[in-house]
């Protein structure tokens, strides 16, 4: 959800710098595995097992053909008596590769949830190593050229921003429809992915799903529960995405408040009061709007302009514990005419180079295309005129200062989408009775998944429970919390739910200043809890770039 059409192809690339997603994924030749109707595991990625599971493209029409899902697991080491079956994991996106993510996070997920589980993930149909793969472009060069034109553009950047964004969405919608030779776009909707999860569960010999989903993974989990309420074993959904940006400005406020509290040593953009920091940021923004700053780093080059500045700020709202301090430093440098720090936060990859031959086969880096295909294909068709979209944007802008990257853009990106399947699931995302309660997680201020959205979902699934993690940012992965992970583990292992009103603190602080309460809690951690904390950090580092990566195309 929530995918501005023209935003940061590259923000996630910058965030990928430290984490591990790309490099530890040693090549595994998926195309050499024969798709099978059973889980025929083979060794892969050294300690994992992989299989390609054949599923019907259309569960109500077997003549529509099949897809082959790339499925991976980190097997449990438990004895048969203690084995608790498969725990399926979806890291979000939509369109993120579950396979790549599990390779970096599998062992850590097993630490958090327990080694009695097989930790399982998969590339959703149409995504990455699952075939057929959704692709709108014929070559890597063509894709790179399109993406170069999709550099972060705030809908508020100029009077042309809205019409240009609208036109690009229409162009992309036509292109996608024309080039969908495999027909996969029709079948990539979330309801079908939920059906695939049921298939996987049954192939494991289990009747009910055990599932952990983050960000878009929440939509997938809730859709499963609505479609198959009697197949819910455990469903943990972490961050309920929505199009209402009601908490976005709260996260911005936490930047101002946190910086003022952290002091000049920890926050480079420090002023004695939050209001003074806000004013300083407004002045800097106005000056950059008037005069953008060109930047050349050793590996890349570009322009820090109004859109760029706003989009880096908005990205930091997802991951404040990681980005507030460097962003503050970048803002201070930018005042002095040096855009390199801010630029490096988001753009670290060299300019695209290629020999301009056709895309290398098998092609699988299609997350940018998958995000559009899934979120638009899931939705009610948008048929707004440009004027209606303008009005929609103007109304939405009343809820948040940063709506330029959210509501408006999300709606824009699907205006012009053409491939809709009749009979797709359009809600309600609810069920009067599920075979086990869901567990929902919300943070205290999430830029794209406010608590009120989670409360709506909670109301739709009577008996379910909600846990609040006391931290700004998107999903529990914004910062590690032993308290949160203990509830997660208990929910899976013995089914217990947090009491109503439970709020968990985190083992981290904004701007890196260890708050006294955090410090004393840290000092009291057991060796086992230290191990969990380390695991949570690995999961966070690996998944955080995926959840901000929605801003592509
Ligand atoms: C089933 O799929 C086939 C192949 O795509 C198609 O020709 C046929 O019309 C479909 N049948 C129904 C009932 O949708
Ligand atoms: C399985 O692995 C975990 C974590 O590595 C370990 O603590 C546990 O003792 C192992 N269990 C068995 C049955 O080998
Ligand atoms: C989240 O909340 C909205 C309500 O704003 C709801 O429509 C949507 O289905 C929910 N999605 C999930 C479970 O992520
Ligand atoms: C690229 O692909 C197109 C269409 O598949 C084909 O006609 C063309 O010969 C290919 N070009 C190169 C350089 O391989
Ligand atoms: C758009 O930018 C102008 C000028 O910087 C600002 O005053 C206004 O609040 C912005 N509007 C939105 C909706 O972001
Ligand atoms: C679940 O496990 C936790 C410890 O892991 C324990 O404190 C709690 O009482 C257990 N609940 C039930 C219902 O067994
Ligand atoms: C944190 O503790 C130190 C001494 O342990 C104290 O000097 C300081 O004032 C405390 N800070 C806060 C914010 O309570």
From TrEMBL:
The keyword Signal applies. Pfam families: Abhydrolase_1, Abhydrolase_4. It comes from the Eukaryota. Residues 410-504 form the Peptidase S33 tripeptidyl aminopeptidase-like C-terminal domain. GO terms for molecular function: hydrolase activity. Keywords: Hydrolase, Signal. PANTHER family: 2-SUCCINYL-6-HYDROXY-2,4-CYCLOHEXADIENE-1-CARBOXYLATE SYNTHASE, AB HYDROLASE-1 DOMAIN-CONTAINING PROTEIN-RELATED. This is Alpha/Beta hydrolase protein. It comes from Mycena maculata.
């Amino acid at each position: 959800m929530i995918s501005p059409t023209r935003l940061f192809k590259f923000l996630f690339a910058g965030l990928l710098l430290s984490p591990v997603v790309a490099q530890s994924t040693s090549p595994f030749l998926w195309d050499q595995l024969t798709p099978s109707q059973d889980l025929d595991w083979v060794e892969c990625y050294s300690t994992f097992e992989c299989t390609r599971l054949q599923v019907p493209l259309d569960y109500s029409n077997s003549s529509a053909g099949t897809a082959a899902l790339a499925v991976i697991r980190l097997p449990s080491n438990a004895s048969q008596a203690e084995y608790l079956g498969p725990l399926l994991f979806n890291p979000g996106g939509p369109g993120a590769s579950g396979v790549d993510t599990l390779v970096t996070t599998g062992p850590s997920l097993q630490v958090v949830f327990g080694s009695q589980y097989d930790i399982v993930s998969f590339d959703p149909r149409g995504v990455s190593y699952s075939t057929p793969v959704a692709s709108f472009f014929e070559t890597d060069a063509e894709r790179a050229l399109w993406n170069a034109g999709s550099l972060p553009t705030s809908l508020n950047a100029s009077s042309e921003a809205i019409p240009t964004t609208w036109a690009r969405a229409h162009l992309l919608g036509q292109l996608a429809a024309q080039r969908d030779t495999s027909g996969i776009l029709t079948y990539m909707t979330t309801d079908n992915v939920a059906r695939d999860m049921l298939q996987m569960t049954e192939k494991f010999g289990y009747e009910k799903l055990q599932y952990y989903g983050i960000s878009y993974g929440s939509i997938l989990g809730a859709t499963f529960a609505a479609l198959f309420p009697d197949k819910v074993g455990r469903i943990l959904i972490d961050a309920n995405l929505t199009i209402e940006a009601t908490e976005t400005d709260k996260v911005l406020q936490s930047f101002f408040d946190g910086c003022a509290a952290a002091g000049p040593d920890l926050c480079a953009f420090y002023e004695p009061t939050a209001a003074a920091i806000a004013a300083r940021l407004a002045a800097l923004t106005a000056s950059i709007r008037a005069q953008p700053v060109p930047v050349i780093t050793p590996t890349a080059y570009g322009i820090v302009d109004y859109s760029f500045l706003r989009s880096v700020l908005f990205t930091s709202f997802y991951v404040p514990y990681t980005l507030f301090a460097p962003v503050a430093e970048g803002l201070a440098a930018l005042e002095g005419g040096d855009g390199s720090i801010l630029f490096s936060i988001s753009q670290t990859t060299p300019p695209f180079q290629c020999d301009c031959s056709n895309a290398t086969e098998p092609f699988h880096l299609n997350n940018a295309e998958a995000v559009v295909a899934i979120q638009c294909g899931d939705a009610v068709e948008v048929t707004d005129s440009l004027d209606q979209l303008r009005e929609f944007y103007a109304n939405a802008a009343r809820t948040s200062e940063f709506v330029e990257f959210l509501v408006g853009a999300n709606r824009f990106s699907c205006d012009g989408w053409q491939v809709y399947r009749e009979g797709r699931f359009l809600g309600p995302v609810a069920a009067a009775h599920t075979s086990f309660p869901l567990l929902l997680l919300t943070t205290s201020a999430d830029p794209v998944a406010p608590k009120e959205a989670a409360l709506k979902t909670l109301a739709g699934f009577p008996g379910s429970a909600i846990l609040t993690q006391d931290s700004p940012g998107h999903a529990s992965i914004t910062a590690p919390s032993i308290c949160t992970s203990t509830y997660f583990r208990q929910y899976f292992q013995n089914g217990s739910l947090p009491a109503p009103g439970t709020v968990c603190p985190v083992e981290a602080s904004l701007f890196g200043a260890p708050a006294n309460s955090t410090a004393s809690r840290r000092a009291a951690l057991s060796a086992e809890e230290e191990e969990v904390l380390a695991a949570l950090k690995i999961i966070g580092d690996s998944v955080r770039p995926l959840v901000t990566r929605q801003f592509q195309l």
